[in-house]
Amino acid sequence: MLIKRLLTLGLIILISGLAYCAGADNPRTGFTDVTISQSVTGSLADTSQLFDFKIYFKDNGGNIITDTAVNYTGGVLSDINATPPADAAVNLAQPNGIGVFSLKHGQTATFENIPSDWTMCVTMVRDALYLPKFTDSGGEPGQLGVNSTGERRLRPGKRSIAFTNDRLEIILTGIADIEHSDRAFILMAGTIVFMSLAAFLIKHFVNRPR
Q1: Beta strands in 104-156, from DSSP E residues, in sequence order
Q2: Which of 19, 29, 21, 68 is nearest to 155 (CA)?
Q3: Which of 27, 39, 53, 113 is found 20 to 30 A from 19 (Cα to Cα)?
Q4: What angle do CA 128, 101, 42 make, to 5 degrees?
Q5: Which domains does the chain have, with CATH numbers?
Q6: Would you tell me how many other CB atoms lie within 10 Å of the CB of residue 47?
Q7: Cα–Cα distance for residue pair 53/171, rounded to 1 Å
């Protein structure tokens, strides 16, 4: 009787172990919560400005997800005093399945219960006055100036992708450029006047009566 119970217990443990290993290697058993955030930096940054984002998903077969909507929950970054955006749904419309949403400084959008065997791409619409970059808690960060994650494989659990926009100091740069231009113009004008005067003196000296 004891041997039978031990064999039954061992079989249960074996089956449980095999199921656990299969689940660990198969991302389809889970879901992903993806949080997208946006913040701005720089003395000239506008914290009230909306930045547009485009997002699309592909299933595990590489097919673009269309004709559906994905819901997100609005939130804020913990270290920024901001008002969260309203919860909303993003329509993944035909033909390319691209949905659009917008975030201000410090705001977040969390897409919950996304199948973890899907692929995702998030692109922030560039603003010429800002230099973008992003970090990804589940993958490689983007290089400075890159505004799109490219297609990235999801995994079970939580994922955060944080976009930062650094405001370019173009006003100060413009003033410096104007100053350099003025100096160059003055130097060029002075050179022309000097050469003209030198040519006049040489001509006068050569042609004077002897």
Answers
A1: 107-115, 119-124, 130-136, 152-153
A2: 29
A3: 113
A4: 35
A5: 30-167 (2.60.40.1140)
A6: 12
A7: 27
**DSSP code per residue over 58-70:** E-TTSPBP-SEEE
pTM for the whole structure: 0.68
Distance (Å, whole) CA 114 – CA 13? 31
Q: What are the phi and psi torsion angles at 85 (to 5°)? A: -70, 160
Q: Furthest-apart CA pair in the chain: how many Å?
A: 140
Query: Residue 77's closest CA among 41, 36, 33?
Result: 36
Cβ atoms 16, 104 nearer than 8 A: no
Q: How far apart are CA 207 and CA 210, in angstroms?
A: 9
pLDDT tens digit sequence for 58-116: 999 999 999 999 999 999 999 999 999 999 999 998 889 999 999 999 999 999 999 99
- Enter the DSSP assignment of 26: -
The answer to whether residues 148 and 36 touch, using CB atoms and an 8 Å cutoff, is: no
Enumerate the β-bridge partners of residue 133.
164
